Amino acid sequence: GEDVEQSLFLSVREGDSSVINCTYTDSSSTYLYWYKQEPGAGLQLLTYIFSNMDMKQDQRLTVLLNKKDKHLSLRIADTQTGDSAIYFCAATDTGRRALTFGSGTRLQVQP
Amino acid sequence: GAVVSQHPSRVICKSGTSVKIECRSLDFQATTMFWYRQFPKQSLMLMATSNEGSKATYEQGVEKDKFLINHASLTLSTLTVTSAHPEDSSFYICSARTVPNEKLFFGSGTQLSVL
């Protein structure tokens, strides 16, 4: 099955850029996703990238995909205190057609 | 984006009782919905795949007689935790998949506490 790994914690200052990294193992994953989870809340889909793309930009968010290395990153420009949350990377498990999630990266934004 | 409504958001129940959690896709039809479970400070683990009109597919280690899933319509899936025990206390999240682009949208989750 698919394994997805992320670093657990990232701390940045307000206004800086944040980069959250993720690796996955299933090279046939067709979609890769980034979700945001605030305390006690569900998951909010931030963005996704199709596997035939290497970059996708959506306002302050930039997703980079290195398919060869199976590496995905999420860059948040001009990080704000409201961006503090846990960010989950997820990849489609082509066998089950469900998502396999990473452990989540806690982003702390300091004023 | 598409909206998935999950209810209730919090439930506290006594050990031995059953709890039903509903997951509705509000503005689209979902032939497939997924149920995940999240323990504190951990990631989401897929419990089962719910297919409209057929039996759910459970992941290894998930007891199908304990976690009953019903997907009777294209917009509603329910998860019933039967004979709940304190170790069933967890955050349960459903998701629904859009067709044809297969994006997943999540409900807001249900925090279950079993006393």
Q: How would you describe the overall organization of this protein?
A:
The complex is a heterodimer of chains A (111) and B (115). Chain A has strands at 4-6, 9-13, 18-24, 31-37, 43-50, 55-58, 61-66, 71-76, 85-93, 98-101, 105-110. Chain A starts with a strand and ends with a strand. By secondary structure, chain A is mainly beta. The radius of gyration of chain A is 13 Å and the shape is globular. In chain A, strands 2, 4, 5, 9, 10 and 11 form a 6-stranded mixed beta sheet that branches. In chain A, strand 7 and strand 8 (71-76) form a beta hairpin. Chain B has 115 residues and is mainly beta. In chain B, strands 2, 4, 5, 6, 9, 10 and 11 form a 7-stranded mixed beta sheet that branches. Chain B has a 4-stranded antiparallel beta sheet with strand order 1-3-8-7, with no helix packed on it. The relative contact order of chain B is 0.33. The model of chain B has no long low-confidence stretch (mean pLDDT 89). Chains A and B meet through strand 4, strand 5 and strand 10 of A and strand 4, strand 5, strand 9 and strand 10 of B.
Chart the SSEs and their pairings.
The complex is a heterodimer of chains A (111) and B (115).
Chain A: E1 4-6, E2 9-13, E3 18-24, E4 31-37, E5 43-50, E6 55-58, E7 61-66, E8 71-76, E9 85-93, E10 98-101, E11 105-110
Parallel strand pairs in A: 2-11
Antiparallel strand pairs in A: 1-3, 3-8, 4-5, 4-9, 6-7, 7-8, 9-10, 9-11
Chain B: E1 4-7, E2 10-13, E3 19-25, E4 32-38, E5 44-51, E6 57-58, E7 67-73, E8 76-81, E9 90-97, E10 104-106, E11 110-114
Parallel strand pairs in B: 2-11
Antiparallel strand pairs in B: 1-3, 3-8, 4-5, 4-9, 5-6, 7-8, 9-10, 9-11
